[in-house]
Known about the structure:
Low-confidence stretches: none
Pfam families: CTP_transf_3
Number of strands: 9
CATH architecture: Alpha-Beta Complex
Order of helices and strands: EEEHEHEHEHEEHHHEHHH
Distance between the termini: 35 Å
Mean pLDDT: 95
GO molecular function: transferase activity
CATH topology: Spore Coat Polysaccharide Biosynthesis Protein SpsA, Chain A
Protein name: NTP transferase domain-containing protein
Number of domains: 1
Strand order of the largest sheet: 5-4-1-6-8-7-9
Largest sheet: 7 strands, mixed
Number of helices: 10
Structural class: alpha/beta
Helix content: 25-40%
Keywords: Transferase
Amino acid sequence: MKIGIITQARATSTRLPAKVLLTAGGRTFLQHHLDHLQATGLPVIVATTTNIDDEPIVELADRLGLGVFRGSELDVLNRFAGAIREHELDGVVRVTSDCPLIDPQVVAAGVDRFRAEADENLYVSNCLERTYPRGMDYEIFSGARLLKADADATLPADREHVTSYLHQNRTGDMRLVNLPWTDSPAPDASKYRLTLDTADDRELLTRLIEDFDGAALNIADLVAIMDKHPELHALNEHIEQKKLGE
């Protein structure tokens, strides 16, 4: 079974324009993200758009020797379907490029579970019920099921958000599995935001990377820092995540 990671990235983000191309610790947030994905040992494909603004994203992926697929900006489901076909993936790990500190071992554990069952109807994630901080999210599913979703999904939210057709179980035959963080050192690690969506998120991630060498740390170490330094959590605890369909 060929499993690859597809990460979606674009420069035309609205809350924080070109956020993945901003830098911390001498590297773009996108490069931090891709470094962590490459550490899984899986093929990594960057799914970006045909917009000229996304040329720097393509150039970085090419420089790192990663796969690239360019498609629709708004129909992200179709963009993923094109990447699956072009790279002939049987299984897909979907992540988003606003997760510069995503822990490769967290992703690898999800892949191990998916491989063990090899069920085309299986959907594995760590955020159906949130125990990890935002910024550690992954979803794993069969390429065939996403291609079917691309053929059948008509709701605009399903076209934009890629996997809602699967995890909302619109066909009634998906088997949804959530992998919680069972050894979390924090009472509620899900309250933390290690994702990049706003200027306040950027401030937190920059502090973690530049002051605590956060790009070299695993999830347990990052959460331990957040627990020890409540002033870091205060930087972005007020941010509300966009809801499905917004």
